[in-house]
Amino acid sequence: MDSESWNPSSWRSKKIAQAVEYSDQDHLDKVRTKLKALPPLVTPSEIERLRSQLASVQLGQAFLLHAGDCAESFDACTHENISNKIGLILSFSLILIWGARLPVVRIGRIAGQFAKPRSSKTEKLADGREVFSFRGDNVNGLSPEDRTPDPQRMLSAYFYSTTTLNYIRGLLTSGFASLNHPRDWSLAHVRSPALREDFERITEGLADALDFSRTIGAGEGIAFEQGGPKGVHGEVDFYTSHEGLMLDYEEALTRLFPLPPALRSPASFNGTPVVPGTPLRNRQTDPLTTASRSSSRRPVQNTSSTPLLAEALDNVWGQYNTSAHFLWIGDRTRQLDGAHVEYFRGIRNPIGVKVGPSMEAEELIRLIQVLNPDREPGRLTLITRYGAEKIGKFLPSHIKAVQESGVPVIWICDPMHGNTLTSTSGLKTRNFNTIVSEVTSCLRIHTECGSVLNGVSLEFTGEMSDDGFSVTECLGGSMELTEEQLGLRYQSFCDPRLNFEQSLDLAFLLSNHYKK
Ligand code: PEP
Ligand code: MN
């Protein structure tokens, strides 16, 4: 891998897995030009704040909750759906905070999760026609008549992401997301009396705790210390993410920005003026410099009076993907010599990579060296997804390989993607018990290997059907959803998601685990 030659389009010379083939190249170019001119969705300082919070996650000082839909759709972009999603993520994290007494970093699969990889390029319809597979609203339409990839959809995805994020920002700053009002997030949806009682116990405890800390004049309550609008008691942070699958889209939203001032420390200047446009790591020649930058999150005053140094300090730049705070590489696009790994290695955002049964230990070591060459805490998250049956066979050797490599990573468990099955009625589903089984094995194996599980990655939804009930896509949970009930309110057009009650069941299970 040639580390000198990275730029936002260097992925174009590599093999592109899951590539989308557009028939109208001119149209694609126009869309790319337009996207390049549009404003960023997220800012470098937000991205850096997430990076520093993820460094805490990696040290075991916080827990990472990564969750949301398998795929968002343009039609499901409504105020009810967005607030239900945020409400569920907040409720889930509150239960965890309460049990584990650890801050929770929340990253939603939201505001951009519009593209999907597919195992087959085409799909055979019941009437015998063969059409392109549905690849998510960013690429083509769900209707069989609308399967030709259309570049215009990338612009729509940008604007749907913008409007989603705009509403999320509104919710976060207008009191909805405040720890002071947790009842607003979910209680209306919790029908099970036992679950309701458990959740109410926590919200009452929390109200007391916040009241107490206000009375004694304590600062941020139990909110994450580095985050939250400063000075607002009990406010929370929230970040966005999606699979970085459509590299045309990701490249167009990649922008060269100066590092936020807090990161421009004199220690990151090694005597050579830095050149905008090269990946940050290429500018560093000595390991001491790298180590200082990695660990430096405090504001450093520029006491230098030399203009050269001052100029160099102002010239510390990073390539930021401004479409989301966090992006991940899927299990089908993580080839070492492929386009996705090439693109991801040069962006400054914290990134994730899916790790499944097909990953060789040596391959994993190479991958983490390429994706986190400066060994920066919080930079790289491994999202493991083996399946409950296979985790015991693969995770221990992956943990050992990573430990021997010395590259720091965050480990999170995705108990969804290795546990998908088809019900007798033909619906794609997952069983709550199997999901719990993978999480439980994951926790145990990490402990046995002298490692720590730092979080979970889930597909869940707070979405309600039109008649006001939770969706019915996964089997089991405290509501004991059966195969016969799956068809009642099955709303996912992609992978099956845990519904509101099943998600809270899992939250309590994790919370109780950490309480012990
Ligand atoms: C997903 O997260 O929706 C997904 C497709 O996962 P994976 O890449 O692990 O199969
Ligand atoms: Mn999925």
UniProtKB/TrEMBL annotation:
Pfam short name (any one): DAHP_synth_2
Keywords: Amino-acid biosynthesis, Aromatic amino acid biosynthesis, Cadmium, Cobalt, Manganese, Transferase
Pathway: Metabolic intermediate biosynthesis; chorismate biosynthesis; chorismate from D-erythrose 4-phosphate and phosphoenolpyruvate: step 1/7
InterPro entries hit by this protein: Aldolase_TIM, DAHP_synth_2
Positions of region (Disordered): 268-305
GO function terms (MF aspect): 3-deoxy-7-phosphoheptulonate synthase activity
Gene Ontology BP annotations: amino acid biosynthetic process; aromatic amino acid family biosynthetic process; chorismate biosynthetic process
Residues spanning the membrane: none
CC cofactor: Mn(2+); Co(2+); Cd(2+)
Principal EC category: transferase
PANTHER family for the chain: PHOSPHO-2-DEHYDRO-3-DEOXYHEPTONATE ALDOLASE, PHOSPHO-2-DEHYDRO-3-DEOXYHEPTONATE ALDOLASE 1, 2
Protein name: Phospho-2-dehydro-3-deoxyheptonate aldolase
